[in-house]
Specification:
Keywords: Membrane, Sugar transport, Transmembrane, Transmembrane helix, Transport. The protein is mainly α.
């Protein structure tokens, strides 16, 4: 070849320098190539999204099914087991076992993600989902059941780490936001499915076994689908510029993968797109091996602040706690049919689906920042309304119902989908695996902390003061979003690294 593929051409560097100094330009592409040459077929983009998104669906299903499974397990008449008389700690191990497994999965992802690649990490996650579901469903005693929950949770940690990376790295820039946000839709869809299937089986003898066993076919489909899909072309090119294989062979492999991912619409532009990505990766310094120290300085520190900050605020603004009160709020409002917690959960689940679908449609049109700023503002109003209800307005339950629905809707417009979207976009490629694993670890760790601390804090402060405290934290998160979070709408991943970090 006439030029070294590991080095950007002079014209490429000149174009980058020019556009880097013109960041204020609305439409000027930052790097050579921009997004104009990203020809793609929407039909071809479906499967590279669908199979990774099944990891999110299984995560959501586990949340919904477990809420019903614990009722089934503790029943003396329908549990089908002799060890149904569980204490609160044992029930807590069942419900939180997958969460602590997810924490371990996030730690494992930090060390193995870049070695395995996104595709193989998702295949491993599907295998752990399958084994965990089988062990849980067939468990002869509590110890084996908790082990099964833990194994399933490791699969959750790996899947929630690798799925947004694979989707982000393979999706066309113009619809990347929609596809990653749609993964959140799949999580909520899984919750609704878990609540629905659980409510149908809760009165069946040993129904909890069927609830957990029902996730195995999807785990198989996910594993087979990821085995069939190609690796991420960007991950292949990262290996190429870091000298982890023959450059020409890896470039040809990346071209073939890109053609499979984009469909016939890509025509003969795949080699050009691969060269553009290579030039951009080289320009932003991706050819250097990542070190642990780099995670906490320079561009990656800024990306870590953005990503970990978002998912931290996602959890500590009260999302698990507000939903905890859903049944009692509806009951106090006189909705007798909704007094059953499962029916309330299904009702809220469908509402969450609608609002998440709205976010999916809007995220690549309006952008990330407007949805975050508007959604979190609505959450602040709802949290102060909930606090006021429990302190002063207990004779006006309609206030609590409106506040609850406002909170759920605004969360699903903002933190719910966009938190996962941003952490998949902002990390530099060679640090993306480790950076995203830290963000996922923060997410699950904060979730576990809030879940654990909620009851003691409620007893100490009371529900009203606690919701006010969540409201203050939400105000802080709004300030964080306004000053720290960049707009990434329409930018390629390489443009995001060069322009926003």
């Amino acid at each position: 070849m006439a030029t070294d593929p590991e080095q950007p051409s002079l014209s490429s560097i000149e174009k980058v320098g020019k556009s880097s100094s013109e960041i204020g330009g609305a439409e000027e592409p930052l790097l050579n190539g921009g997004t104009s040459s990203e020809n793609y077929s929407v039909l071809a983009a479906i499967l590279p999204f669908l199979f990774p998104a099944l990891g999110g669906l299984l995560y959501g299903y586990d949340i919904g099914a477990t809420s019903c499974a614990t009722i089934s397990i503790e029943s003396s008449t329908t549990s089908g087991i002799s060890w149904y008389n569980l204490n609160s700690v044992e029930v807590g191990l069942i419900t939180s076992g997958s969460l602590y497994g997810a924490l371990i999965g996030s730690v494992l992802a930090f060390n193995i993600a870049d070695f395995l690649g996104r595709r193989r990490e998702l295949i491993l996650a599907a295998l752990l989902y399958l084994v965990g579901a089988f062990v849980t469903a067939l468990a002869p005693d509590l110890v084996i059941m908790v082990i099964g929950r833990f194994i399933f949770g490791i699969g959750i940690g790996l899947a929630m780490h690798a799925a947004p990376m694979y989707i982000a790295e393979t999706a066309p820039s113009k619809i990347r936001g929609q596809l990653i946000s749609l993964k959140e839709f799949f999580i909520v869809l899984g919750m609704v499915a878990g609540y629905g299937i659980g409510s149908l089986l809760v009165d069946t003898v040993a129904g909890w076994r069927y609830m957990y066993g029902a996730s195995t076919p999807l785990a198989v489909v996910m594993g087979i689908g990821m085995w069939w899909l190609p690796p991420s072309p960007r991950w292949i090119l990262l290996c190429a510029i870091q000298g982890k294989g023959n450059m020409q062979d890896l470039k040809e492999t990346a071209v073939r993968c890109l053609c499979r991912l984009r469909g016939e619409a890509i025509g003969d532009t795949a080699p050009t797109q691969v060269e553009e990505i290579l030039s951009e990766l080289t320009f932003v310094g991706e050819e250097k091996e990542a070190s642990l120290g780099e995670m906490f300085r320079g561009k990656c520190l800024k990306a870590l602040t953005i990503g970990a900050g978002l998912v931290l605020f996602q959890q500590i603004t009260g999302q698990p706690s507000v939903l905890y009160y859903a049944a009692s709020i509806f009951q106090s409002a006189g909705f007798s049919a909704a007094s059953d917690a499962t029916r309330v959960s299904i009702l809220l689940g469908f509402f969450k689906l609608i609002m998440t679908g709205t976010a999916v449609l809007a995220v690549d049109r309006l952008g990330r920042r407007p949805l975050l700023l508007g959604g979190v503002s609505g959450m602040i109003i709802s949290l102060f309304l909930l606090g006021s209800y429990y302190l002063f307005l207990d004779n006006a339950p309609v206030v609590a119902v409106v506040a609850l629905l406002l909170y759920v809707g605004c969360y699903q417009l903002s933190f719910g989908p966009i938190g996962w979207l941003m952490i998949s976009e902002v990390f530099p490629l060679r640090l993306r695996g480790r950076g995203l694993s830290i963000a996922v670890l923060v997410n699950f760790g904060a979730n576990a902390l809030v879940t654990f601390a909620f009851s003691p804090l409620k007893a100490l402060l009371g529900a009203g003061v606690l919701f006010y405290a969540f409201g203050v934290i939400a105000v802080l998160s709004l300030v964080f979003i306004f000053f720290i979070i960049p707009e990434t709408k329409g930018l390629t991943l390489e443009e995001i690294e060069a322009k926003c970090l």
